[in-house]
Amino acid sequence: MRKKIIIGVILMFCLFVNLPAYADIIGTARLSLIKGDVVVLTGDTGDEWVAASINMPLMPGDRLWVPEGGRAEIQFVGGTYLRADSNTEVDITSLGKDNQETIIQVAVPQGRTYIKYRGSSLRDSVFQVDTPLVSVMSYGLSKFAVDVYENGYTEVSELDGSVYVEDRHGNTKISEGHMLSVGEDNYTELSPLRPKDDWIRWNSSRDSRLARAGSSRYLPPELGVYGSDFEDYGRWNYVSNYGYVWTPTVVVTNWAPYRSGRWVWLNGDYVWISYEPWGWAPYHYGRWAFRVGIGWFWVPPAVNAVVWAPGLVAWIYTPTYISWVPLAPGEIYYGHGYYGPHSVNLTKVNIKTINITNIYVNSRVQNAVTVVNRETFITGKHVKVVNAPNNPFLSGIKVSPGRPDIRPVKATAMPLPNKIVPRKALPAHTLTEKIWNTGLKKRPVAKKENASVFKAGGPAAPMQVTKVKRPRPVRAVPKSGAGVSQEQRNIPEKPKVIPREGTNKPPVQQREIKSPHVQRAIPEKPKAMPKERIGKPSVQQREIPNTQVQKGIPKKLKGVQGEGVAKPPMQQRESSKPQQQKKTTEKPSGVSREGKDSQSPESNKQDLQGETPQRYPGMPDGGLNNPNMKGQGQGQK
């Protein structure tokens, strides 16, 4: 009797306690926003960069590249965000979560990143960013930017809170309102922050938008960070027996849960990746139900029963087709791991002894069941479904316990296998060399404030820092896409001295003229040169073409006056100055030097996956009516 009581207590404990599991890692990070041809390289795609998709889970070892004109956002568990600007690589080094710590470690070999860290109540929790020269650690609430330029030169800007920065010579703490610049040869400089540019302003606006989510009051505390998705793309209703439920504002006919997206082979399991911008929490937590007058609605999980799952569906698979239906509240999910209450861990039982005889509630809903050709399921290519009933779940076919037992191929690991990635969107090979040569993959995590990254097992020494009153001019992030030269978008920051005539130095028109005022792209007037002959004008009398000022980098001087040439009229020389200033105020279309999109807000929303209601890039008809799938009553395709 006593033995039975103990077993019963253990079973109840397993039902209501969120145990550590494989899901704690795979559900830790996802791509929550994408703009442009962002690509990823994962352990399942091998050495090939493939098109990234919104709501794609990211795992340790995955690499993300944001090409010219693109942007991306990674959302971590707990409401922490990392955003990457154009020409930026972010590598997921380590993700860890248990009852004592939450570890997030990323590497940034190049580019501009912005981090909003929510912190954690658990001890030994840290967000660490590694660059070729430094490691940046945040142990509490903070907002900071990490920018990596040529030769690993790194700038750490603390916008809110504080962070610790360590290089090979020491460690220092950076407080709000300051920027630390770290270069080679033990160069460190502490200065006030620069004025906010378009990149920082966009991030601040994004933070404010995500913080205004009112849907959090209907969600378990663990899912409150996804409130903005529910707020922007649906509405809440009260339904008897379920309480408050969420209904997506979808206006497409024949829509059903788990239809606009793809099953991707990820870390040893088939994981659902939704092309819908809100399609993270509703497909990996909770259950779906249907009622006349309301339609489809999502039922949140109970408090203390929030466990991430690959995709909560029931399966039927045959040699010719694959079929699935969303699970209703209370129905059993068969998965390869622990996925909370109302689930069976197939790694702990003999799968051959499972015989599923129940009829799934949602299988009786019109168009609820999805059927695809086996080839479509594996490769993503559209192949007509033949010799399959519209609804296998009502045709007496045996339900399969767990995911399909189908060997994946390379395309199975791609969220968008049919999308062709432009060559210019791929990173240069030099970035890979930079990662290994600087040891970014082997950096340990500094879980304590006094721990050292570069001196394993020992405390960090104080960093020698030079304090200055003004920050240095803005540097440039190189364009590193494949097939793109390593040219810079901005102007070099240090001026060169113009030699006097008659010396052995190269002529003025063959040397590069640089100025301290490079940020305004207006070159400084050079020092006057002595007149060698009467009538020969000095250098400052020579007119610099306006086209050189527009680009910011002077070219060879044209129209250099020789002996006996008269000076241009004074009024003509003075009138050229306003034209130069006018040229510098014009902004080219597209992406500015700071990464700002010059398009209208409406067009920006259409380009950003994760911010556009009812449009899902990468799929036909916006991804709302997937031609590769058919539902009950749709007929054979």
Secondary structure blueprint with pairings:
Layout: H1 2-16, H2 23-26, E1 29-35, E2 39-41, E3 50-51, E4 63-66, E5 71-76, E6 80-84, E7 88-97, E8 102-117, E9 126-130, E10 135-138, E11 142-148, E12 154-160, E13 162-167, E14 170-175, E15 178-183, E16 187-192, H3 198-211, H4 227-233, E17 234-239, E18 243-248, E19 261-266, E20 269-274, H5 281-284, E21 287-291, E22 295-299, E23 313-317, E24 321-326, E25 333-335, E26 343-345, E27 370-373, H6 374-379, H7 429-437, E28 466-467, H8 546-551, H9 570-585, H10 601-607, E29 608-609
What fraction strand?
Answer: 15-25%
What gross morphology would you assign? elongated
Tell me the Rg in angstroms: 30 Å
Average residue pLDDT: 78
Please tally the helical runs, counting DSSP H or I stretches of 4 or more residues.
10
What's the number of extended β-strand segments? 29
Q: Which structural class fits the helix and strand makeup?
A: alpha+beta
* Residue windows where pLDDT falls under 50 for at least 5 positions: 1-23, 483-523, 529-606, 612-625, 632-637
Helix content: 10-25%
Most strands sheet = 18 strands, mixed
Q: Distance between the terminal alpha carbons, to the nearest Å? A: 59 Å
